[in-house]
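Submission sheet (multi-component)
Chains listed below:
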Amino acid sequence: MPAFSDLSQQDPSEQALLQPAGWNGQGFDPPLQLGVMASGNGSNFEAMEMAIRRGDLSATIRLLVVNNPGCGAQRRAERLGIPCSVMDHRLHQDRRELDLELVRRFQDAGAEAIVMAGWMRIVTDDLIQAYPNRLLNIHPSLLPSFRGLDGVGQALQAGVQISGCTVHLVTEDLDAGPIVAQAAVPVMADDTRTSLAERIHREEHRLLPIALMHIGQRWRQG
Ligand code: GAR
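Outcome: structure written.
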C-alpha cells in the first residue's frame, strides 16, 4: 500500500481533507486539469492517462511538454491523442527563459497543476512560483534518501534492502519538497540497475495517480 503524508497537518484549517468542495465521492467536478512535463520514455505519463481512462484518476491531461524532440513521451502522446508541445532546452537561452515559456504554454492550455513525470532538468523559481504547491515531481527513491541524479543507482550503490518512489511537491531545494506519497519496493541481492528500475517503475505507475487523487482534494478545497 502506498503511504501518504498527512497533508492536514501542514495546515490545520484543512481538516476536511476527504470531503472537499467539488468532490462527489468518485471524482472531481470538473476533473483536475493537468499539465505534464517529460524528458524521456514517458511511461509515467502514459500510466496517468491510462488511469484516467479506467476512471481511477479524475483528471484531464491538457498538455504534455517534452524537452527532447522525438522522445518516447512525445510518441506516446501522439498515439494517445494528447496535445504535446516540444520545447527543446538547447534552443533556449537559459533555464529561466525555458521555464517562463513553459508557464505560458501551461496557462494557455488551462492547466491548474503540473506533474514532472521524468523531467530531467532543474526548474527555476519562475515555474515553481507560477504553480505554488501545484507542481509535483516523481522520484525513483524513498526521499530524503538518494536525491538528484540516478536515484536507482545510488540505492544499489548504498546497499539498501528497501527502496521505492516518492511523489513530492517541488520547491527550490532539489528533491526536498513536502512528500505527498511514497511506495516501497524490496531490493533483491541479484538486482541490476535495470531490474530495480523496472520494479520501481511499476510502483510509480500505481502511485502517481493515487497521489494525484489525494492531493487533488486539497487543491480543490481552495
Ligand atoms: C521515473 O523513474 C522517474 O521517477 C524518474 O525518471 C523516470 C522517468 O520514467 N525521475 C527522476 O529521476 C527525476 N529526478 P518514464 O519516462 O518512463 O516515466
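Remark: The CA atoms of residues 70 and 86 lie 9 Å apart.
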